[in-house]
Amino acid sequence: MKKVNQIEMCRCLTTLGLILALLLGFSLGADAQNAATLLDKAAAQYTQSNGIKAVFTLQTSGAGGGDRMEGTIQMRDDKFRLDLPGTITWFDGQTQWSYVEHNEEVNVTTPTAEELPFTNPALLLRTYKKGFTAVYKGESTAANGKMAYDIELTPKKKSDLTKVVLQLEKNSGLPTRMVVSAKNGTNSTVQISQLQTNQNQPDRFFVFNEADYPDAEVVDLR
User: Fold this and answer.
1) Could you give the C-alpha distances from 193 to 12, 45, 132, in angstroms and in order?
2) What's the pLDDT tens digit per position in 21-56?
3) Under DSSP, is residue 25 helix (H, G, I), strand (E, B) or coil?
């Protein structure tokens, strides 16, 4: 896989991990002004979710133009499968396979400890405190006219990301918008249209199966 594709995929996974941290079914009430409490509850909810599936739209914009894509991510424990146009990524908790359709190639890697929080949304839920400062910013009006809470995450150390702004609908607790700003001037906006829990996919679902892609060239980069 080309490096630029890997960077975009990591950014997508990071964005999804953060948004899913606030999307897993807990209510916003008296603790709404404690962003860390919200995220801690989300991590606990994910652990109890028995696997999730999310359908999303990711839109990027920057000096070089913009792009829009739709995709699906399925997660259970430390495992995930991410489906994007022309690419599929599997991660079984240790090994990652990235399939690129246009050149029938699968890159096999083992993410490092530094890379894992940005390639594994589940791990990001549990480690956000080490990397981000979460601040409740107040209330605003969402695009649908409903009241929303605003939460801002900023990296504690030097990062490609400058900030993440979450807008969460006040009544439902669901995000209406999430914008991730990067140092290169790129903004990424995520909207999740569907979320299902209790998916309980088997372990093999998160592993690349060569029999399903007989023409693919497997490139082992470990």
Assistant:
1) 16, 19, 26
2) 545 443 334 344 466 665 566 566 666 777 888 888
3) coil
| Rg, Å, the chain Cα set | 17
Cα–Cα distance, 123 to 216 (Å, whole number): 29
Answer left, alpha or beta for residue 145, where phi above 0 means left and psi between -120 and 50 means alpha. left
> What pTM value is reported for the model?
0.72
Q: Residue 168: is its pLDDT beyond 80?
A: no
- Burial letters 70-79, b for 16+ CB under 10 A, else e: ebebbbbebb
H/E element, 74: strand 65-76
| Angle (CA) 60 66 71, round 5° | 50
User: How many CB atoms lie under 10 A from the CB of residue 36?
Assistant: 16
Contact 176/169 with Cβ under 8 angstroms? yes
